[in-house]
Automatic annotation (TrEMBL):
Name this protein carries in UniProt: Class I SAM-dependent methyltransferase
Keywords: Methyltransferase, Transferase
Domain Methyltransferase: 60-150
Superkingdom of source: Bacteria
Species name: Amycolatopsis balhimycina DSM 5908
BP-aspect Gene Ontology terms: methylation
Length: 223
């Protein structure tokens, strides 16, 4: 595990804050959200479509995987999937919950993956802690690791607000979160050389976790 915890001496404050916050809440987060997918049929439908499109064509990365709940779900749909997360605490939780799957500590801004190595990349609510002005570089990095024909699926809350979060899952934390507009995210994908295949906006579920509409954007790297 020591190698997992090595990181640059200097890094942006938002990265440090995000890692620290998710390390703090990792076990509580894993327990509280463990069965959330059972109550979100739109999420299951979109993930199922993604799995059908990329299944059997190569490895898939769940980027910002948290405790691995979606990594495990995609594996159950037949994908060759592994998880990457900024938080060592989340990776520890994922390894405990899914000992048969691979999880690594890493940053979406600088993935330890070869160019064109993935058939699919999932960024499920994992873009929301990066300041919007820095997202073009992150989405370009996600596009870099996709093979021709590979697909990127993102999900995020809709809006224009920047929120400072000071409490989460019963713990004191300090990190920023950004709601995003589907056109903005689709534009990031296009600028990174991807072709947007679908975008969907749904109303918030009857859940304490959703206060605004939620969006999905699916994009493909041209063959």
């Amino acid at each position: 595990m020591a190698a997992d915890r090595v990181r640059p001496v200097t890094e942006p404050t938002f990265v440090t804050e995000t890692r620290t916050a998710y390390d703090t809440v990792a076990d509580s987060y894993a327990e509280e959200l463990r069965d959330l997918l059972d109550d979100t049929p739109w999420d299951r439908a979109v993930l199922g479509t993604f799995a059908e499109l990329v299944g059997g064509t190569g490895p898939v990365a769940d980027l910002g995987c948290g405790p691995g709940r979606l990594t495990g779900h995609l594996a159950s749909l037949g994908l060759d999937v592994f998880g990457v997360d900024l938080s060592p605490g989340m990776v520890d939780a994922a390894r405990r919950a899914h000992p048969g799957l691979r999880f690594e500590v890493g940053s979406l801004a600088a993935l330890d993956l070869a160019d064109g190595s993935l058939a699919g990349a999932l960024a499920w609510y994992s873009l929301i802690h990066t300041p919007p002005e820095r997202l073009p570089a992150v989405v370009a990095e996600l596009a870099r690791v996709l093979a021709p024909g590979g697909r990127l699926l993102t999900a995020f809350p809709v809006g224009d607000e920047h929120r400072r979060i000071t409490n989460g899952y019963g713990h004191d934390v300090a990190l920023d979160a950004y709601r995003l507009q589907p056109d903005f995210v689709a534009g990031l994908c296009t600028a990174a050389g991807l072709v947007v295949e679908a975008r969907l906006v749904r109303e918030p579920a009857q859940s304490v976790y959703e206060k605004t509409p939620q969006a999905y954007v699916l994009a493909r790297k041209p063959a």
